[in-house]
Amino acid sequence: MPLSKEDYINSAKSNAEIIRKEISVLKVSHWSNFERQYKEFWTQVKEINNLFKTLKPLLKEEREELWDNFQSVCSETRNKQNREWESAANNSSNKKSMILSDIRSANNYARGAVSINDLKTANSILRKALDMIKDGWSGFTLTTDLAESILGNNGKMLKNDREECWERWSEAKDNVTAGYDKLSESNYYHFKNEASSAYNDAHNGDPYDVLSKIKIIQSEIKDVFLTKDHRTSIKYLLNNAFDKAVSKIEENKRESQRKHEEWEDKMNSNLERWENTTEKQESFITRMQDQINDLEDKACNARTSEHADRIRGWIEEKYNKIKDAQNSIESLREKIRSVKDKLNN
Question: How many whole angstroms from its chain centre is CA 142?
């Protein structure tokens, strides 16, 4: 049954009031912490659009007024959203530039690293950059943060800027890792040569010099960067060199002891032989003295002077033999004293 004119107008006005209230709600709703919740806003916009399509009747004049009002709210919000997006894009780009600048600096330290300190500096810069990539605020100055907050920026970088930073950061991190590997490789070959030299010297050189060399290498290696595997490899060489040097020292000590014992045996044998010789020489002197005494008696009782002279010649010969024997005894006694002093020390 068709509506009367009055009912039609009343229904139209009721429908217009529904849309008017929705538009009023749209204007003031969908805010959180002073930020417009655009997703919820545009969801309600769709709902209001649907009201314009489904709520009938609507008077033409009211429909046009409501539609203009509705479009004004949408246009104003869209413009504000676009301005915020543009501001967020600029803010994100600026922060990306700051982060990429730090990453380039870290890359320079990593690629040109000549010491562990260069790589530590690169890592420190990358940690700062990582903090900025994660939340967009950390690492920036208080002044920057405050200014961005006033402008309505939440500090987060846009997805594409964040992904670019992540990619550059990952490349730089790989360069730092490669720098550590390169530094360890360089240190490894240097100290491997030193350790190998000590190992060779342990077989062919002075073992005490080898122990001193090992101590120096161990002291130096504490302050250089090496991977666990590289450090283990060098430690293995040094331990082998140390064991060989100690073994050689013990072997030398045993050999020295053996030679000393041989020398002692030889000296004791010499002492026994020299003492026996001394006793024989002393007995020889006694016999010579007895013979001289006998010859002295014979010389006194010689029948002729010629025979007496011949006897005295024999006496002279025996005195010379006694003198030689005494010199020999003195020489042997000196040897005996010297050897006994050495044995007692």
Answer: 37
Q: Which of 271, 203, 270 is nearest to 237 (CA)?
A: 203
What is the four-CA torsion angle of 75, 76, 78, 83, rounded to 10 degrees?
Answer: 140
In this predicted model, what pLDDT tens digit does every residue of 185-233 receive, in sequence order? Answer: 989 999 999 999 999 999 888 999 999 999 999 999 988 889 899 999 9
Token pair 């002692």: residue: 264
pTM: 0.55
Residues 30 and 41: beta-carbon distance below 8 Å:
yes
Q: Distance of CA 298 to CAs 77, 289, 301, Å?
A: 161, 14, 5
How would DSSP label each residue in 282-317?
Answer: HHHHHHHHHHHHHHHHHHHT-SSHHHHHHHHHHHHH
Whole-angstrom Cα distance, residue 199 to residue 274? 48
pLDDT in tens, 115-155: 889 999 999 999 999 988 886 544 444 445 444 544 445 56
Cα atoms in the 13 Å half-sphere on the side-chain side of 306? 0
Pull the structure tokens for residue 284. 């020889």
Amino acid at 304: T
Q: What is the dihedral of CA 326, 332, 334, 340, to 10 degrees?
A: -150
Give the list of residues 6+ apart from residue 281 with CB closer than 8 angstroms, or none. Answer: 325, 326, 328, 329, 332
**Residue 76 burial (CB < 10 Å; 0-12/13-18/19+)?**
exposed
Backbone Cα Rg of the chain: 57
59 burial via Cβ count (<10 Å: 0-12, 13-18, 19+)? middle
Strand, helix or coil at 104? helix
Structure token pair of residue 330: 């003195």
Nearest-angstrom CA–CA distance, 79 and 29: 17
AA letter at 190: H
CA angle 14, 20, 22 (to 5 degrees): 110
